[in-house]
Predict the structure of Dynein axonemal intermediate chain 7.
Amino acid sequence: WEHYLSCDGSPDPTVLQEINTFMSLWREDQNEDIQLVMQKGEQVLNLIEKLQFVLLDTPPNEITEKETVQYQESILELQNLLQQKYNGATEHLLKVTNMREDSDTGNMEAVIKDKNVTFCLWANLKKKVRFKSHMFCDTQHGFDLPKSLAVSSVAVRILHTRYDHVSPLWLQCQSVPKLEVLDSTELTQHSKDNVEEPEEEEEKAREEPNTPAEEETHSDGRKSAISFQEKSSSAADINETEEETEKKSEILDIPSQGIWLVQDPLLQEEEDEKEEAVTDETIVDLQQFVPVGGVYHIDVLQLPPQVKQIKDWSMVEVRDVGLEAYPYPPEEAEDATHPPVQMTLRLSDDVMYFEDPVIARWDPAGQQWRTDGISNITYEAQEKLITFEMGTFYTIALLQDAHLNMPYQAWELQPAGMDEALLTVTTVFATIQIQIKGNQCMLSSVVVEEKDVLSPITGKWISPVGLRAVLKKAGVNIFPEAYSHNYVSVNKKAPLTEVRAYQQMALVASAFTFAWSKWNLEAGQEQVVFKVSEQLKADSVKDWSLYMFNGQKAQKLKITETSEAFSEELEDDSEFHSTLYHMLKDSASKEAIDKVETASFLFIDVVYQLLLATRVLTYS
């Protein structure tokens, strides 16, 4: 519907005929001007984003396996086409180097950038050793070439894409945890403690990291999509024979009744084989480290035949080979020692690196990121410059530990008006504030060492799915995946207890503030403990009480946050209730209950999505 209303002439990426027509017309378009490619590239990125959103946002019962495969194939074809167009634009620029010749060095230099891409190109026209080093002043990217390259007819391209179209598709389209799970009817049922667990998609998504081994590879090293549902659907078939409680226990990958579930032997065997195969420490574990800040395509290219002016004619030799890479080190001298290439890259300002980034290179043959082949790394955090050496020219990414902001040190969810709330998550490195209003949310601030950072991405209203993608892309990951407990020391909680707690917290979030309690660590796996205070005005003083909830029973505790030991003793003159709503209703004001009962179900759903996405009760 939104696509229909926009009426901007762009194709509907979910309609195969429209997207195929769009790609065919652009392939046939011979205009290789770099500015036009960048403009068209922005449209392509929007189409990819729409397809990824559909894959992430659509409930599993509303999308067929055929549609999933179709959307994944379309994403990969759009990514490949965009890279081909940048290669064509590079070749076009290298044929007319005289138009961008530098008056001081006699060599060609071009820097073109927009919000998605920074394109740096240098052509060695004079072939003089004294010009073997170059720094692109506009971007502070630079290189130092070996002597053999400095006297050759070569060009160096640094294509920095702020998106990642290189990593496996499962990493780009992670849907764990599944956010869009409740409709208004189900929410009403949850509030009455009749909770059915609807998050089957998480089981599917949990299998996604295994799928790269099943993908087919194009001749250019890129992947084609094989349905990511194949493994998950087979797992679902197996799980149908298990008890209902076991299926529910798998939702959040944490134990129910204190017992870890035993995986199906066939699937376990596949996992063991995979673990045995990946023994090389230089292969990056993409569940632990993720690319942040985009991808740097660094290439050394052969200069194509140049345009010659003969009277009023411009003549150029036409070849069918396209853009050619220059072999370095030379293939005929593999045993000889060749000096490395030194690179300097300026890191993006709209990305946070909380620790020194890990540099990895893409291995097209193995379809994986690797850390070998790169040496002498120097990182200047203040200047945001990183310098390193590599034996040949690679596609480079800067990686960061996906879980360095976990576990959280504290969290708080407080109302901020009618159908408005503020979620604050405090980590070792940063304090993140997310504002919620109606059916949308907004990154309000990211504070690091008492300084506001990432201002380009704050203050924009988006969906919870969009916010999750934006924050992860910026290097601020507070969204655990299904496998995150393998890398983080977590406070394990029974999944049904955790999910029901989030549902009921969201139900009353319009009038009550919830916050972290140290006693949650002491309460055991079957129970969660948090602080609660009625709050009708944003600036009112909080009167904290401790509540304990196990999914079926809520109670107010007698202890306080400053008590010496944990106790499950009930507060005087209080009693058990089956839901948190009824528990709070005992002591709440009429105004607070009225706000809870008039809250929008869309607001409640967004609060629930964010709580489920951050999993504050387990990861703090």
Q: What stands out?
A: The mean pLDDT is 81.
